[in-house]
Write a structure and sequence with these properties.
1% of the residues lie in helices and 48% in strands. It is mainly β. Strands 17, 18, 19, 20, 21, 22, 23 and 24 form an 8-stranded antiparallel β-sheet that branches. A 5-stranded mixed β-sheet has the order 41-46-45-43-44, with no helix packed on it. Strands 1-2-3-4 form a 4-stranded antiparallel β-sheet, with no helix packed on it.
């Protein structure tokens, strides 16, 4: 189009009928017509490396290295930033008349009078989130690569006293005794108890360091079954990639190695359920290891390797493995999501929509059995009832970054927490305050008011159940899965009349929950 080339465009804004481009060379207005296109640079001195732009009323706000300025269509006016110790601004906005500025070096600030005040974020030690876990009480624990740990108690974040991150926190697990286990790249694994922290390496466990440095112990994954924690020991010099500890007696350790059939000493993921653990390999598929009732007794152990060639696994290049609450094995691979069907002893592969994956790196399961998948290009939810897949990215949600590094479901709230290199995102549960007792289930919102036709009604039961809606005379109106909200329509997809309706929820064990719904149309 005859437009002078920019090496990089960092941000775009539509202001007063024109398109503005931000770049490391400044701000440019795009002038275009049916016959020609050109760009006009805003007169900025000095030239700014622009990071973001926002439109607030009749002003264009521009943020970058060097501070921020506003543009009214004619003139540039630089803003004062008293109170902010640097001028490396990455974001900003006006909210309820208050100006907020985000700095890459010193955090978040808000304007108060003629100066800016730092917003205390509750103590996050960093933005790069490499691991997430949640305990039974609903506390969320985050691992921030080399920057340590922090915990969210439902109201605030607080930094935990933990100095054993070495070259990064790889995984976090909370055991039944409320201890926090932290696997690291280089510092082995640590158990954080109420009054003490114990680091396990070669001298006090079965773990081993790498060949060139025996003190450098890598634990890059964990899972738990019963009172046993199974963990990966990446590149251990004893050629034993899997180890187990009894968290009721932390002096009891056992290792599983190449002599036991685990021929990949550089695994990337581990999961366990009942008397089996599975290990994901980057090029050898899955090692499916039966350890029996006692992992410290190898007399009854057996192992098989599941691959594309013998089990229809989506790819031998495995990214992650995980068991859901019912004990079904799910695998993220280079080419998508695979489910292991024990009835046919084969994998069933799930087709993913274009634009997501195909590599699936992280998996999490909410209380209703929905599967959350993390990829390099976003987050996806595989609906347990409908089989539909919804995609979440930075463009259509509040997700901070599309490259997903960690996922965890808070068992107390059913909220999803997402870790990225830019921080943590929280996706609130759509079922309100959840209940595990189906007899206490409620429908919300209630009254169910339909105005525009896109409103839906949900139930706060956090398990799987079938939902049936009836008229007060007992006529069945709608039957659906609990994961599919009611839209005020019957089985023929017709709008039902306003009035009182009855709901009946039936779970997998036949237990039921009942209640009434008042539907109002406006």
């Amino acid at each position: 189009y005859g437009v002078a080339a920019l090496d990089t465009v960092t941000t775009l804004a539509y202001f007063q009928g024109d398109i503005y481009l931000g770049s490391p060379e400044g701000v440019f207005r795009l002038n275009y017509s049916s016959t020609d296109t050109s760009m006009t640079a805003l007169d900025i001195s000095p030239v700014m490396n622009v990071k973001t732009m926002t439109v607030e009323g009749d002003l264009l706000y521009v943020y970058g290295d060097g501070g921020y300025f506003t543009y009214n269509g004619s003139n540039v006016e630089w803003g004062g930033t008293t109170g902010i110790p640097d001028d490396s601004f990455t974001s900003g906005l006006m909210h309820d008349g208050v100006h907020w500025i985000g700095s890459s070096e010193s955090g978040l600030y808000y304007q108060s009078g003629n100066e800016y005040i730092k917003f205390e974020d509750g103590g996050l030690p960093g933005n790069q989130v490499t691991a997430l876990a949640s305990d039974s009480g609903g506390n969320v624990i985050g691992g921030f690569n080399r920057d340590g740990l922090a915990m969210f108690d439902g109201n605030d974040w607080s930094t935990l006293d933990f100095d054993y991150s070495r070259d990064g926190i790889m995984d976090i697990l909370c055991d039944a005794n409320n201890n926090i286990w932290v696997g690291t790249w280089g510092d082995g694994i640590s158990m954080i108890a109420k009054d003490t922290t114990i680091m396990f390496k070669e001298d006090n466990s079965s773990l081993h360091g790498v060949v060139d440095l025996y003190t450098y112990v890598v634990v890059n994954g964990m899972d738990m079954t019963s009172h046993y924690i199974f963990m990966l020991n990446f590149g251990g010099r004893d050629n034993s990639p899997v180890h187990v500890v009894d968290f009721n007696d932390i002096s009891r350790w056992q290792s599983f190695g190449t002599a036991d059939g685990l021929t990949d000493i550089y695994p990337n993921s581990i999961a366990c359920y009942d008397d089996v653990f599975v290990v994901g390999s980057g090029d050898k598929g899955i090692f499916y290891y039966y350890f029996g009732p006692d992992p410290f007794d190898k007399a009854d152990d057996s192992i098989i390797v599941l691959r594309e060639s013998n089990s229809w696994l989506g790819s031998d290049e495995v990214r992650t493995v995980a068991y859901d609450q019912q004990g079904t094995l799910w695998v993220g691979t280079r080419f998508g999501l695979s489910q292991y069907d024990v009835g046919i002893d084969r994998f069933v592969n799930v087709s993913l929509p274009l634009g997501f994956g195909p590599d699936v790196w992280k998996l999490a399961f909410d209380r209703r059995g929905n599967i959350w998948m993390g990829a390099l290009n976003g987050l996806a939810r595989y609906g347990a009832g409908s089989g539909s897949i919804d995609i979440y990215t930075t463009l259509n949600s509040g997700l901070l970054d599309n490259d997903i590094d960690a996922l965890v479901i808070n068992p107390a709230t059913n909220d999803l927490w997402v870790g990225t290199s830019l921080g943590i995102s929280q996706l609130k549960s759509t079922i309100g305050t959840p209940t595990g007792n189906i007899e206490d289930v409620i429908a919300f919102p209630n009254p169910f008011v339909i105005r525009e036709g896109n409103e839906v009604l949900s139930f706060n039961y956090n398990g799987n159940a079938t939902v049936r809606i009836y008229t007060v005379s007992g006529e069945l109106v709608r039957e659906t899965d609990i994961n599919i909200p009611w839209d005020g329509k019957n089985q023929r997809n017709e709008n039902v009349a306003p009035g009182v309706y009855l709901f009946l929820l039936t779970d997998e064990n036949g237990s039921v929950g009942r209640g009434k719904i008042l539907l109002i149309r406006q």
